[in-house]
Structures are given as structure tokens and as C-alpha cells.
Amino acid sequence: MSVLDGIKARNFLVIGRVGMDLSPDPAGTRTRDATSMMVAMGGSSANIAAGLGKFGCKAALVTCVSDDAVGWYCLDQLDHYGVDRTHVRAIKGECRTSLAVYETRIEEHQSVIYRNNAADFQMDIADVEAVDYKSFGALITAGTVFAAEPSRSATFRAFELARAAGLPIIFDVDYRPYSWPSPEVAADVLSRAGAMADVIVGNDEEFGFMAGGIDKGLDKARELARTSASIVVYKKGPEGAVTLSGGDEFHTGIYPAAALKPTGAGDSFMAGLLAALSENRELRDAVLRGSACAAIVVSRPGCAPAMPDHAELEAFLTSHPGPTHV
Questions:
Q1: What residues does 233 pair with on adjacent strands?
Q2: For the chain, how are helix, strand and coil distributed in percent, rounded to 5?
């Protein structure tokens, strides 16, 4: 099937981590001053899946969690957001589900991520080979799945199986240095993954990282759009994004928002972009709706809980000024 046909099936297989987020409550509180915490589901892939679910799409997650209270919390949260967890495996031993402690504040923001012995890195080839790929329309993943074995080999195997089943591959580069053994390994592996993807979303630093310098990032995005990918979105933070597809290139701005925190924007952008494309919207409109979703999420506490649904997105688009011009 074509890339857009796969997305329009509105049934996504999402590979990657789910975790627990803790943030000092109320908003604006520093972690060092906290007396209570807001608890929510996190993890890039789980956030994307939850965001898609809020727009009426189906999403199933493939990953591992620890067989303990934190892992059980994540399983229950996936149920809460309507994410299919048939292929989420609970593992015993010393591996632990990812934990993030981050502040709902912009000034002097602190995010502390606990990823030692991460349970999601234990996802293996048997986990991805157990999936019936033909029952899905598209595969989505974020770059962290490639940071360690056996998750890295498992995800490349999932790419092969998805390709054999005719599924488009959607890849959020999502480079997190703390997860990787070295920048050199990350650059090599993420470049290999990018070359296999049909839709690639990343920021200027991530494309620059793969290209060997931030000044070369846009050229890298253009190369991928020319040689292998159907859609490439090159995000530039407050300067908006450059989208490349079918030989065309267009620039879009961002929606102004009173941000409470810097986290969750990329996951919400991806969910909003794909949901809009699944509704047969034009690519420019889909990118703008993804940008609006990002603006909504940074203006609310939490990540998964902050993801908008249709009604919230339409209310935002009606009540907020249009995106900044670039």
C-alpha cells in the first residue's frame, strides 16, 4: 500500500517505551521544593499512541515493562488510553521501567530521566516476530528503541517485517544522548533507520547530528526526501518547520502558546500530524494541526494527559491566532 493509504487505515503499530512521569505539583514548583507530585504515563512511543487514540485512531504498543508496581501502572495507563497492549511483555529481574522526573516550568527547567537497566531495551526479536503486521496500516517508532540491544536488532527486524507486509514506516528521530553508548554509534544507527523510513520527523539538531554537523541538517533532510522517504519534516523549534514531499518543499510557522514546560511537544506533533493525514487532510494542514497539538501540550501539565482530542484541537484553532509566519 502507499504511505498515505497505510496512514488512512487509522490503525498503527507503535514500537517503543512506556514509562512513568512524575512532576512537582502545582505547576511552577521546582523538584527540590516538591511536597507532592503529579503522576502520569510517559515515554515517547506511548505518548504518541495515546495521542492517536484521542483522535479516534487505533494504536497497539510493542515494548517491555518491569513486572512490578511501576510496570503495572504503565499497563493500566495503556488500558486507560485505549492502547492495545497485547504485545507489551512484563519481565522479571533487575530491569526497570523508565521513570522521568520533570518540572512543569520553563525557567531553569529540570528533567531527570532514570534509564539504567531499562526494561524496554529488553524487547527482542521474538517480541516483534509475534506481531501480525498485516493487521495494521503503518508502523511508528522513535529513535530511543535503537540505543541498545536487543531492542535495536528487534526494531530493525520489525522494519523488515513491516516492509514485507507493505506497511509504511514512520520514524521520529528523537535522539536522546543519555541512552546511547556514544555519539558515533548513534549517528550510524539512526542514519540506517532513517534510510529505511517512509516518513521521518526530526529537529534541526537531529538531522544535523546524522549529517555530521547542524549546518548540514537541512541538506540531509532533502537527501532523504529525494532518495527514500515520502515525507520529511525538518523542525526548527520557534522558527517552525520545513516539510519535504514529492519534490515540493514548504515552510510553516508555530502557534504562539503560553508554555508551562518544554516536554511532550514532539510526541503531540507526531500524533496530530498522523491523525490529520489519516483524515485525508492535505499535508500542509496536517503539519499545522501537528504544530497546534504541540502548542497545546506544552501549555498543560503532563504529556499523555495533555494530548488534545478533536474537540480541544478545534477549540484551540478557533480561539488562537494563526501560526507565526516564516
A1: 201, 243
A2: 45, 20, 35
HSE at residue 324, side-chain half, CA atoms within 13 A, is 13
Tell me how far CA of residue 141 lies from CA of 14, 42, 168, 222, in angstroms: 6, 15, 11, 21
Query: Topology of 3-319 in CATH?
Result: UDP-N-acetylmuramoyl-L-alanine:D-glutamate ligase (3.40.1190)
DSSP letter (8 states) at residue 182: -
What distances in angstroms separate CA 48 from CA 127, 141, 235, 251, 282, one per listed residue? 20, 9, 17, 24, 21
Please count the other Cβ atoms lying within 10 Å of the Cβ belonging to residue 281.
15
DSSP, res 230 = S
**Residue 8 and residue 137 in contact, taking contact as beta carbons nearer than 8 Å:** yes
Number of CB atoms found within 10 A of residue 76's CB: 11
As a residue count, the chain comes to: 326
Reported as a single tens digit per residue, the pLDDT across 288-325 is 999 999 999 999 999 999 999 999 999 999 998 888 75
The CA distance from 194 to 225, in Å, is 11
The residue type at 196? M
Strand order in the sheet with 99-102: 37-42, 19-24, 99-102, 111-114
Global pTM?
Answer: 0.97
Q: Which of 87, 94, 99 has its CA nearest to residue 67?
A: 94
